[in-house]
Amino acid sequence: MKKAYIISTGTELLLGTTMDSNSVYLSEKLRDIGIKVIGKSTVGDSRIHIKNAFELGLKSADIVISSGGLGPTLDDLTKETACETMGVKLEIVEDELRKLEEFFKRRKRAMPKINKKQAMFPQGAIILKNHLGTAPGMCLKTGEKLVALLPGPPREMKRMYLEELEPVLKNEFELEKNKAIMKTIKVLGPGESQVEEMLGDLMEDNRQYSIALLAQEGEVHIKLTVEGQDFNDSQAIMKQITDEIEKRLQHNVIGYDDETLALKIAELMLKQGKTLALAESCTGGLLAKMITDLPGSSQYFWGSATSYSNSAKTAILNVKTETLEEYGAVSEEVAREMAAGILNNSAADFALAVTGIAGPEGGSEEKPVGTVFICLLNGHGQDYQVKKMSFVGDRDAIRALSAKTALDLLRRYLISGGVHK
Amino acid sequence: MKKAYIISTGTELLLGTTMDSNSVYLSEKLRDIGIKVIGKSTVGDSRIHIKNAFELGLKSADIVISSGGLGPTLDDLTKETACETMGVKLEIVEDELRKLEEFFKRRKRAMPKINKKQAMFPQGAIILKNHLGTAPGMCLKTGEKLVALLPGPPREMKRMYLEELEPVLKNEFELEKNKAIMKTIKVLGPGESQVEEMLGDLMEDNRQYSIALLAQEGEVHIKLTVEGQDFNDSQAIMKQITDEIEKRLQHNVIGYDDETLALKIAELMLKQGKTLALAESCTGGLLAKMITDLPGSSQYFWGSATSYSNSAKTAILNVKTETLEEYGAVSEEVAREMAAGILNNSAADFALAVTGIAGPEGGSEEKPVGTVFICLLNGHGQDYQVKKMSFVGDRDAIRALSAKTALDLLRRYLISGGVHK
Q: In 3-state terms, what secondary structure has residue B389?
């Protein structure tokens, strides 16, 4: 198994305020393609410490990957220092210089002189494209070792790793043959220990596969790994264990690997040619945001009203003042009127409404913080479903769980084709 | 300023599933007592890699602190390896052995043989008590350097650091006097290299303070550090440099340290007793979410309409069909009608409207992806302000920049008390 060493640069990573999520991402991705991470190092923007880290990396691993320090400013030192450690010289690459100049031209700004160094690379380097910023990465073989430099901003780093560096690594080290296959099954509803009970005997030590559970923003992720010499055998085992887990968890399974609830909803809505409107209260725009995070969501998302005050509930959702007075803003009745209000205003097929108490203030004995009513309304046939939830957690957790549970209600409805009481 | 190097051991930290929160905690705590962390290293449970890390730490810093690998099992190697690196021998400490035996006795279990090594320490070591587990830590001076070993479980590590190690460090290095002060200035508008140009001479190497720039989700963070013998002197220098930066960057400064735009808006709205309504299109709920992330936002946030389709713009915001046809949904005119539409429906004082093209689809030559119109409307006096932006980046970045720029428009208005064209 090839060994990798990861270096994260940036003084901010040493202050105790910023988490180094880049190295965690890279560790996971490298493991997925069968490369073993044997160590990580985090250093500030200092030439001597960056050099020490690259030296240790080159001494102990086959592959050294860094993130950060590729920007134009004086404290961006990674490229210079890595090349110095490898004993190679930087030269202007005209093509890259032109790209940089065009980038600034498009923004109608003159290119600052300091940006020029972003177009300098050593001979023989593979330049890794940056679609989201000005700093290109690079990758260079030095003897039997490979050194790759990625930018620091996580979005830029991730895309560059996936699209530019991973193919080079796979090609260079012929990794495909002996790899473990992995799958994540995402579960919403039962908690971690409930999932453990439902899986029961499957969780026991086993030579063919391993299962790990991970609680993640209200979901439980079941991480499956199958290792073996033969890829077809491994795939057969993975299918068998996945089928068994699905049988036990049924509708609680909300997706696999990179799938999210919003993505699932997109698929189902597009396939069935339906449209959705929202009426939000305690989620305060979060539900609409989760849906519109996806490009193309305008094809099935009509729009939304976030009625954060009672006056907004009456003004834009036609919730009756009497209903608010009699039952309170957090009630099944108001959730139903919110859904009906937005649906009557729109041409959408479905409405989802959410009203609840996200806290930390606003709870009572009868309706404690975490009480949330979710209503799904199918405009055709006036099919209603209301769910009352009692979530536990802080404000962020309650809002996230409310939004996910609402999406999950719609997902189950779309899958089964009807309201389940 | 004394320098520290942090080592985290444990194979699980290299798999990409577990965050190394110990080193983040230690970084923050050490900074608080005036010790500068110059690097961190994470290694698996392997003698050779642990040794490499201690060697690099001893070479580059005054203090080396590790966490993890103090347990009784075969893969707990930190103490043996650290002592080997320092060239000191481990011996049984009778007192500690007795404590361990008592620990097992209280639990009515025989002490496994392998636990014996937890009672072994080199001569001259200060033994650090573990109130929450069986693994004691230790601290040893070797020449001018100090090496401290802490256990891996975060609860045990934190308590041992605070109660046992921190007093030793303070005593050993007379730290209180020599503490660094830090401040982050957050900037929205100019990019990283523009900020660098605006700061110009301030960025040059300087003995009194240091400046680092960090691009963060559309913002640029200016990280200031002032180090010095005298706390009052340091504070005076910090004030001077902060004033100078404010003078140069003016209204582009949106906050300090943990302040966010949403928090600033909350402060200003509460102070001025005003309320806000939103009309979102391309931000799709994100703006409302950012505002309602804060508890208590219902005091100044009336509600919002997310009109993701043209039909929603006419139905809930009364945007005229002719305006949509003549100017298109992404236009100054529609932004103005959206703001007016929500404000007429509400009792709010201000409305913010955002319409734009977040991409990746939907751009044209005239209105490319990233074109965004933001309108601020003050209901009293019908004061309008419209901003046309051309953001660069992917969908997430354009949405985040749109929302932040809208909040910033309101912030500037509230600060200055009027519309600036």
A: strand
